[in-house]
Amino acid sequence: MTLRGRLTVAFLVVVLGPVLLGAFFVGTTLSAVDRSRATERLGLAAAGVRTSVDALCQQLRAAADAVALVADPAARSRAADQVVGRGLAAAVVIADPTGRTSYATAGGPPGPWQDCAGAPTGPVGALAVQVRLRDQAGADLGAVAAAQPVDPAFVARLAAVTGVGVTLLGAPGRIAHTTEDQEVRAAVLAAARRVAGDRVTGAGDGRYVRRVGPSLGQPLPLVLSVPEQRPPGLYGALVAAVVLAALLAVLAAWRLARVTTRPLVELAGAVDRVAHGDLTARVPVRSRDEIGRLAGAFNRMTRETGSYVAALTSSRDQLRNHLVVLGDTLASTHDLQRILRVILDSAVAGTGARAGAVLLLDGHGVLVGQCVEGLTGRWPTEDPADPATLRVPVGTGVVGAVAATGEPLRGRWAPPEAPTGEPTCETYVAVPFAAPDPRGPERPGHPPADGDPAAPPSAALGVLALYDRLGGDEFDDDDLVMLRTFAGHAAVAVENVRVHEEAQRLSLTDPLTGLWNYRYLRESIRREVERANRFGRMLSVLALDLDRFKHVNDTWGHAAGDAVLVEFARRVRGVIREVDLAFRHGGEEFVVLLPETDARGATIVAERIGAVVRDQPVSVDGHGDEPLRVPVTVSIGIAVYPDHAGGGQQVLDAADDALYAAKAAGRDGYRLAPAGDPVPTQEIPVVAATVTPPDGLPRAGAAEPSGGTSSGPHPPRQSRGR
Fold this sequence. Notes:
The protein contains 15 helices and 23 strands.
């Protein structure tokens, strides 16, 4: 708030405070007096109601006693008619000891009749008093009941006696009879539901309400109400007085504040221009007082600030050039984590952010944190040590919206109503990693190639988010432009890594079955033999061949043959262990490597594979609606290193020979290779240098350019274990 505003508010508080307090005091006092009077009137009315109802009950009791005193039954009936004729009761009913009515006067009020001494159990049609008939010996001869109707006339008489509005309640939430106007009945009924006992409450429609009964001697549920008696237009006059006083106070406060703050107007205007980026603004120094000294200091500050901004602009331009070079460098490496760390560190340094995170999209539509910086105390979870705990669904929160729309966002953080999984901050900027569009840039006026004009030109790989710029300022448009350029280079680098990994995977796997291919088999057998030599272990090799597979292709077609190969590969993966490796050697031939497994263990695995293939034919699509069931068997050859051979290729050949033996023995079985001749061994020195073999594959134990060792490409295991 400005100084002028503070002075105006202070003056208004001093002037309007007593006025508002006085108006409030007058209003509350008159309201309290009116309520007190209404409470007194309702108390007197309640007493009058109780007296009237009690008098009516006494009258009915006297009428019933008069009839009960007549001993002769015939005379008793005439006495009942006389009581009704004199108006002492509206009806008299005489009942025998069993409760059956022996005589009743004509024109009795409708039921139910409410006993004056009891509590109502529902709607009341009449008040009644019952007297027992007894003979001189005290024997019970029945009962006499006298009743008076509870109708609108009865309620109107109570209202006339008490001088207040009277309402008789019927069924729960309903009015039986009332003297209230139609306009206020709903408000009176609503207030009656809220009030209890002798308490008085306002009906919200200019009336006060009190409930009377049911109680001892007054069994009727009644509601009494009186109108408010405040002077008309009281609150309007008070409001008008307050508004007039407020207008006068505002005029006086504005004049006083303007005269007091006029010397500061020029300085405030210059400060506003500087805040909008005009560093050439200057304030004329018109005096030597405090305001003059402040103006001189402001002019010096703007000159120095302009120099600083020019220097920062030059530094920013240099940093942009460095980031461009850095982006080109990132495109040439395949270490994803190193790339992400360089991306985040460079972005944080280039924008002056306090914290940041790099999130990549997984296969389930969730952005997962891969690299974070400075998020201590900002984590949405209790485990800040692992960046992967930062998980945001696409379309949720700021980073989720950036990933969903492909558009960058910046601004101040507004806490969401529901948790999104994002870090907390004050300001943010988030840009997407956009994968390059393989179709190239779109031409104006031409829709995307797939015919969908709304289709985005690129797909988001992830999001780069930065939080809380140093100095407390928001991220500006220059930061957004710089980060978008940088994110484009980063997306190229990330995409290159993924393409490299996918190409490496495709080069080592069979596209039909998903098993490792022959190229990876050669490297794996070499690596596993070296490991078996190093640790003195055994390595078993299974050579598998589907029996009469050509007959399957010739009979049911090559599509059915491919389905058989895929199902066979799936069943093999389900039998072997996680450490075992399965390969497609070519056609219908397969190889399984069983590390640290002797001949007995290999035969057990071979039996399991044969059984799982033999016991259940493979279902393939036929020409009709019913699938075809193709019976399949497999022949297996088993060789163990070093029992049957002294090298990788030799053990493969031994397993292959055993496979031919199994075929010759009638198929659908396995054969173990015969023990080979011992092979002399000698120690061979290992050259610590990088040597590329003729086939282009890395060798186990070969030194890498970085000086470390590698065991060759080894993608994740394919099998599910057993």
